[in-house]
Amino acid sequence: MSRQPILVLGATGSTGRRVAARVRDAGFPVRAASRRGTVRFDWADPATWEPATAGAAAMYLMAPHELPVDPAFVRCAVEQGVRRVVLLSSRAIEAMGDHRLMAAERTVRESGAGWTILRPDWFGQNFDEGFFRPAVMAGELAMPLGNLRQVFVDAGDIAAVAATALTEDGHEGRHYEPTGPRALSFPEALEIITRVSGRPVSYRGTPDDYLAAQAALGIPAEQTQQEIKAYAALRDLGDGHPTPDVRQVTGRDPKPFETYAAEAAAQGAWRDRAV
Ligand SMILES: NC(=O)c1ccc[n+]([C@@H]2O[C@H](COP(=O)([O-])OP(=O)(O)OC[C@H]3O[C@@H](n4cnc5c(N)ncnc54)[C@H](OP(=O)(O)O)[C@@H]3O)[C@@H](O)[C@H]2O)c1
């Protein structure tokens, strides 16, 4: 591939930040884009789209939680010369009825660019950077998943797969499912976090527990019921299983959850922050 810039969306977020670093380390110029990124990009402001995409050869495409991938943006990127798109999607989207990400995948497959779709399992980083952090800090996490085992994956491993697909040939038209090396239940994951952080975190795993926890956050019951339905479909799939995809694409084994947690703790991820 030429050394034209590679556009990385969500470049201040859990995956994008790491994708940008890896692409840069591979010797490619990076456009690190988001509302607060070095290149300003806002899904809500189409005036920011063309400057971000013009002259870029490839793009890491992610939409933040809840936001759709706007097909008009992908059209704009391809018209501006983007020839390779690596999309961050998610595992089990059909079973869970995630129409936002199913539409994003369709858009990318029909874009005319070479595409690679990443369908990772839960990010380990949910516990220290993402939406589980407040619950971890409060000492109690509720999820309607009982003891279902999931294969939490380090965001650095997702980024490594993405960066490889962006910078090397041979990944077009492929779906990858990055996972960690071992499936863990939420209680098992929280036990590890408790051990490395010194913060006891308990788990409540029924739909009623989840409903109560979400209600306490002011989330409407109707929205939570929809989530509970999607999580019930995930439970029906049974425990997750590790895939060989991280190793196959990057040549390295994925990071164990224990290592992720120990590194995050060493960086002070679960210390109280001054307000
Ligand atoms: N968490 C999981 O376990 C999991 C698993 C599978 C798939 N996923 C998928 O991963 C995606 C989230 O990825 P992530 O965790 O890397 O993101 P993230 O850490 O939540 O960060 C979101 C990024 O999007 C940017 N952003 C927010 N609003 C924006 C806007 N209006 N316009 C442009 N940029 C905007 C943010 O930067 P600024 O604030 O600077 O704009 C930030 O860089 C979701 O689509 C989710 O479905 C998540």
Can you tell me about this structure?
The chain is of the alpha/beta class and 275 residues long. The protein has a domain at 6-121 and 155-179 and 241-254: Rossmann fold, CATH 3.40.50. Helices cover 42% and strands 14% of the residues. It has 12 helices and 11 strands. The protein has helices spanning 14-25, 49-53, 71-79, 93-96, 99-109, 133-138, 155-167, 186-197, 207-216, 221-237, 245-250, 257-266, and strands at residues 6-9, 30-34, 39-40, 58-61, 84-88, 114-118, 140-142, 149-150, 174-176, 184-185, 202-204. The strands form 3 sheets. Strands 3-2-1-4-5-6-9 form a 7-stranded parallel β-sheet, with helices on both faces. Helix 1 crosses helix 7 (155-167), helix 8 packs parallel to helix 12 and helix 9 (207-216) packs antiparallel against helix 10. It starts with 5 loop residues before the first strand and ends in a 9-residue tail after the last helix. The mean pLDDT is 97. NADP nicotinamide-adenine-dinucleotide phosphate (NAP) binds at residues 10-16, 34-37, 41-44, 62-65, 88, 90, 120, 122-123, 126, 130.
Which hetero ligands occur in this complex?
NADP nicotinamide-adenine-dinucleotide phosphate
The helicity comes to 40-55%
Q: In the CATH hierarchy, what is the class of the domain at 6-121 and 155-179 and 241-254? A: Alpha Beta
Strand/helix succession? EHEEHEHEHHEHEEHEEHEHHHH
CATH superfamily of the domain at 6-121 and 155-179 and 241-254, called what? NAD(P)-binding Rossmann-like Domain
How would you characterize the largest beta sheet?
7 strands, parallel
Please give the radius of gyration in angstroms.
Answer: 19 Å
On the 0-100 scale, what is the average pLDDT?
97
The CATH architecture name of the domain at 6-121 and 155-179 and 241-254 reads 3-Layer(aba) Sandwich
